[in-house]
Amino acid sequence: MAPQIYLDSNATNTVLPQAVLAARLAMEQDYGNPSSTHIAGLRAKALLESVRQRAARVLGAGDGRVVFTSGATEGIHTAVLSALVALRERRAAGQPIGRRLLYGATEHKAVPESLAHWNRLLGLDLEILALPVGGDGRHDLARLRTLAPDTALLCTMAANNETGVISDLAGIERELVASGSAALWLVDGVQALGKLPLNLCATRIDYAPFSGHKLYAPKGVGLLYVRAGAPFTPLMVGGGQESGWRSGTENMAGIAALGAVLAALEDGCTFRAPAQLAAFRDQLAGSLRSAFAGLRFNAPFDMALPTTLNFSVPEVSSKELLNLFDAAGLRVSAGSACSSGQAEPSHVLEAMRLPAWCSGSAIRLSFGPLVDAATIAAACDAIARCGRALEEPVRLEPVEGAPSSAGLRQAQPERGAGVDRNGGVERSGGVEQGWRFEDHAIADAASLHDFLQQHPDVVLVDVREACEHRVGGGVVMGGVTALNVPMANLPAHAERWLRPDTAPPLVFICRSGQRAMQAAARMRCLGHAQAWHLAGGLAAHPAETADLISQ
Ligand code: PLP
User: Fold this and answer.
1) How high is the pLDDT of residue 437?
2) Among the options 155, 338, 380, 467, which is catalytic?
3) What is the predicted pLDDT for the residue at 342?
4) How confident is the model at residue 417 (pLDDT cuts 50, 70, 90)?
5) Relative to the CA of 161, which ligand 1 atom is closest?
6) Which residue from 79, 361, 317 is spatially nearest to 210, judged by alpha carbons?
7) Which atom of ligand 1 lies closest to the CA of 160?
8) Which of 95, 93, 91, 154 is nearest to 125 (CA)?
9) If you measure from the C-alpha of residue 194 to the centroid of ligand 1, how many angstroms do you get, rounded to a whole number?
């Protein structure tokens, strides 16, 4: 398969080599529990506190506190819980608290979900309102001006994960101060860490959560900044770790690794300067523009992090482009990683009121400050190949001797057959009784190998689009070359495969296994019992099948 070019850093990242080493040392040598009072514990404690001090310097925490968490979702929940508990206490004491929880319309889902969760559980029953953003993705400050006096908690991210748009935090603070608002203020700093200068103690921000894995630390470690004097309620109580602010034995491997990343930020030699990152963005933007006619960028570059490009190509859906890029080895994302499994358009682009085609076709391409020129050049090359592959006219393969496929296109389940909850056909008493889409799955490379041995007449069918096939190359498994039959061409081929004299066993393959599963189900629906699919697709068969899969 095509070598991987990873451009999805806003979703997650590789781990910095120094961070891998630090985690390893924390697991193999300094593995004490920081709560233990012997020397092993004291060493772990010293490491923990040195990382905390480093984090405090990087964030500009001043006399505020830095608490270790499992990541930003936990940090957001802790901050929201802390704010809402304080509001409830103030209200019980007869103090005015404002009547709403206000959040930026483009926040990560963790924010509105957390607000709704704790508002309900704590019985506060405050209004939860999205603060609109403009077409540039920035908060509507005029609207904030009118809402701020009545707001109890305000949540506004520092930079957006889908578009890279940088919030005008100074402008938001001005509105809060000018309106005399007593609102508590949560700023999700996840996408800002390592990319924007931070000096939190010089601001009015009460809470700022961060996540290690967005900046080359491992998943499962994060930070929460809490302004000195801001109300705090722990999310978890127990052994009293983190001075009682977050119980549970600390994730020392993750914290040590995060410390190494913070050290790299402080030394200033590891990560690339913003100007260099902006030059990389321009290079990618140029390649994208020349590869795809009519391409539109969905956020203004001068207001966004240089490491995020969000764009749409007319008449090419996010899914199609993502499949194509993946075939070329380019790992990108459709909108945010959390929602890319769903077909819904991005709430961020919708909040920016971009035309529907833009949110339906949006692709996010993001890189981290560790990226190198060779990766960007390889990405540009892959983008150009994808553009060419998309331009080539789609050839509908003629099928020798096949009669018209019109009847099969319309094929319906037999009379009396039921369609199960997965869309498969249940034939009472037939071989297919009770199957679901997941049935007839070949689970792993070894099973596939056995299957191919046992069925020398098998037809391997690669149902990826012809353009994916073109950029990624063909597939050979166990010496069998796959036939490329995109989903739209399936009915024509089905005619031949269904002839009783030839009916070969079929194994469908694709990128993730989804389309292959549907193709196999469709064939079984048409009466071809021997239709299988490779579960997990080509993505799940990398190293083990290196000898089986080739271009
Ligand atoms: N906030 C933003 C802006 C994010 O991008 C993410 C992750 O995608 C989160 C919060 C959640 O972070 P975590 O994965 O650490 O829980």
Assistant:
1) 59
2) 338
3) 54
4) very low
5) 5
6) 79
7) 3
8) 91
9) 15
Place of tokens 């001043």: 62
Q: Which of 214, 215, 340 to mutate to test the pocket of ligand 1 (most atoms within 8 A of CB)?
A: 214
- The CA 15 to ligand 1 mean position distance, Å, reads 17
Q: Is 525 a catalytic residue?
A: no
CA atoms within 13 A on the CB side of 538: 31
| pLDDT of 423 over the 50 cut | no
Tell me if 436 sits within 8 A of 420, measured CB to CB.
yes
Atom of ligand 1 nearest to the CA of 10: 5
Residues with CB under 6 A from ligand 1: 71-73, 108, 110, 157, 161, 188, 190-191, 211, 222
Instruction: Convert the pLDDT of each residue in 461-519 to its tens digit.
Output: 999 998 988 888 888 888 888 899 999 899 888 888 888 777 889 999 988 889 999 99
Element (H, E) at 140: none
pLDDT confidence tier of residue 401, bands split at 50, 70 and 90: very low
CA distance 205 to 207: 6
Domains of the chain: 5-11+272-391 (3.90.1150.10), 17-267 (3.40.640.10), 406-549 (3.40.250.10)
Q: Cα–Cα distance between 188 and 177 in angstroms, integer?
A: 20
The closest residue, in CA terms, to atom 10 on ligand 1 is: 72
- Which two three-digit tokens encode residue 29? 């040598």
Residues 6+ apart with CB under 8 A from 536: 443, 512, 513
